[in-house]
Amino acid sequence: MFVDGRFWYGCPEHATLPKNNADFWRAKIVKNRARDRDTDARLAEAGWLSARVWEHESTEVATGRVKKIVQQRRSKQNGR
After folding, report:
1. Please, what is the average pLDDT of the chain?
2. How far apart are CA 16 and CA 40, in angstroms?
3. How large is the C-alpha radius of gyration of the chain?
4. CA-CA distance, 71 to 35, in Å (whole number)?
5. CA atoms of 7 and 10, how far apart (whole Å)
6. Strand pairing partners for 54?
7. So what's the pLDDT on residue 39?
8. pLDDT of 36-63, one tens digit each?
9. Cβ(29)–Cβ(79) under 8 Å?
10. What's the CA gap between 21 and 32, in Å, rounded?
């Protein structure tokens, strides 16, 4: 489980870029997202599933998403 910050990972709904050094921050956020995609892929290759939530999501929404993922994976394992 990863919890992504809206600034550092460029939340599509809430992210804003600073006016100072905007090019630097834009590149930094793009790099963060690319690194995370790579991390997710490497974990998947090793048999793990990465789940990501935004820091501003409510606990109920985040845990609901995790619960759904767990239920889906269990169903697949049980052949359902």
Report:
1. 88
2. 25
3. 16
4. 28
5. 5
6. 4
7. 94
8. 999 999 999 999 988 888 888 899 999 9
9. no
10. 17
